[in-house]
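Appendix B. One record, verbatim.
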Amino acid sequence: MRRLSVAILFTLVATVSRAEWKVISAQTESSSASGLEHRYVALQDSTTGERASLELTLFLAKSFTLRIIDQPAEPHIDLAEAMRQENCLAGVNGGYFDSNYAPIGLLIVDGKVFSPLQRARLLGGVLMASSRGVQIVRAGEYSRRPNPHAAIQCGPFLVDLGQRVRGLEATREARRTFAAIDRDGHAGLGFCSEISLAQLSAILAGGVSDFKIDRALNLDGGSSSAFWFARKDGSAFSIPEQKTVRDFVAVVAR
């Protein structure tokens, strides 16, 4: 039985490592704010034929920044309502929380620390925004020195230094939400259809069109995953979460 399990694991890892995701279609729409856009990308794994779709809001960090929209007390509203109430341009759901809606890991909202940094394997990275722009750092690299006005701890890392992260879970498929940055000052917040963490890592490491991702961090996924984008005509593209969440990560003008 042990030999069989090892053989199955080896086959699975080998299949994941050979997977090559190709873009089969893509669409882009602009926001009312110049420099912010929404991309829809459909992909297919050339090895297995499996398909996935990405929704991505992409922006230049010198013109836009991130804000954490927190809701520590009842009533908890959904992403779409929160984005409209706070006049945000785009957003996704945020980080992990417990059954009492208390945040798990670092949470900084408008410069105030609501929850401290934690050392845990699942909470491997921090997405933060400061006067220096939008950054994704490993938990061990995090410092308050940039005085972030927004920060959220989550994980695992999906892409690091442009390379996919090895050893990620490869069997459980779920909706995914993520944040990503490149080396040229661009940042993005995204939503992906039901795939594994290993598959998402492979997709993002390959880049999304001309967005060559340097680092990407997984946010709370599954039924928490949500995506919202304010269109140029005043309407919104929205994928709602399937359960109530504690916080959201929003794109706003600097």
